[in-house]
């Protein structure tokens, strides 16, 4: 059985892995590893799980975790840049940290800050940390993220990366049932090339995209 890729929409994927709860496929084109869409939980179940997480805006461990996305972004920003934290969750710590650095950061989250007004304008930067692994429709959201950027805008994405099939089998990240898309460097390289973006990797899980200033 082959599933269409939810990211690049390519029709061919192959079996990648399976565990007690789910089957994982890999797209033959962009290499995304994904859960069969027939095995997704409902949005209500998803929200219940997020509600039980503790993402305290003042938690220093959480802030340290998010600073991995903040550190490569800050040198890219002009003074008083304006941004959006897409999928900020219930405790928007990253937006708070950016705002404290003088970069006003708007909030959007489908569950906690569902203010779609903020999606009708463009920003100097957009952050999307620990979000894209949850999306049922990553194709649409990726296009939306790019549309939210001003020319030469910066997009920071944070998600854990697939290394290989053997390590995937024992990967704690896939055992979170709200995680349904698993990206690798190959997938992000594909996205950068396909959309004409420059891409830099930071550490194990931070990707910084810039719209290439091609005249
Ligand atoms: Zn694909």
Automatic annotation (TrEMBL):
Which Gene3D superfamilies does the protein's record reference? Answer: Vaccinia Virus protein VP39
Q: What does the organism's lineage look like at the top?
A: Bacteria, Pseudomonadati, Pseudomonadota, Gammaproteobacteria, Alteromonadales
State what protein this is by name.
Class I SAM-dependent methyltransferase
Q: Does the keyword Metal-binding apply?
A: no
* Any one GO molecular-function label of the UniProt entry: methyltransferase activity
InterPro entries xrefs: SAM-dependent_MTases_sf
At the top level, the lineage of the source is Bacteria
- What GO biological process terms does the UniProt entry carry, in alphabetical order? methylation
- From the UniProt annotation, give the residues forming the signal peptide: none
Q: What keywords is this UniProt entry annotated with?
A: Methyltransferase, Transferase
| Enzyme class, broadest EC rank | transferase
Coiled-coil zones:
none
Q: What is its EC number?
A: 2.1.1.-
The answer on whether this UniProt entry bears the keyword Methyltransferase reads yes
